[in-house]
Design brief:
The protein has 2 helices and 10 strands. Helices cover 10% and strands 41% of the residues. It has one domain: Immunoglobulin-like (Sandwich). The two termini are 18 Å apart. It is mainly β. The protein is globular, with a radius of gyration of 15 Å. Strand 8 and strand 9 (132-133) form a beta hairpin. Strands 2-1-4-7-6 form a 5-stranded mixed sheet, with no helix packed on it. Strands 3, 5, 8, 9 and 10 form a 5-stranded mixed sheet that branches. The protein has helices spanning 3-9, 23-29, and strands at residues 14-21, 36-40, 56-59, 64-71, 78-85, 93-96, 103-108, 117-125, 132-133, 138-142.
């Protein structure tokens, strides 16, 4: 079995991407610069940029990505309103945990990236009507 075949045999593993948002700071500044801390569960495979807005998640074709968010302040409201990424690579969709109103976003990697595939996350924060979209360079990167 080749290395590529071994990688594909272990495909469809879930990779959780968590955004921790300082909602109070983001609302005060009107942007997420310095108020977003991203993490994923794929550090062992080489993901980088932890605790910043520039997370580089290592992933390959067949991997399932699961985006969720947390508020830094327990009283603040934070939710993902959308994920902007090349649809030829991944098509995230909003889902809700059964019996709750807790939402998350999931998508399957359609092909292994030759280079970084950047994405943006739109967040609903507090009582603000318009979402705030990330401007930093988070991306999915091929193995």
């Amino acid at each position: 079995m080749t290395t590529k075949q071994r990688r594909e045999a272990v495909a469809k593993r879930p990779i959780s991407i968590t955004a921790v948002v300082d909602a109070v700071g983001a609302l005060a500044g009107g942007n997420l610069q310095g108020h977003l801390y991203m993490y994923d569960t794929n550090k062992a495979a080489g993901s980088t940029g932890f605790a910043s807005g520039e997370l580089q998640t290592k992933a390959q074709r067949g991997d399932q990505l699961l985006w969720n968010c947390l508020a830094l302040e327990c009283e603040a409201y934070v939710a993902i309103d959308g994920i902007i990424i090349d649809s030829e690579f991944c098509e995230p969709e909003r889902k809700v945990y059964p019996g709750t109103d807790v939402a998350y976003w999931t998508g399957t990697v359609k092909k292994t990236a030759a280079g970084p595939i950047p994405y943006q996350i739109k967040f609903k924060l507090g009582t603000r009507d318009e979402p705030i979209t990330t401007t930093q360079a988070s991306a999915i990167v091929g193995l």
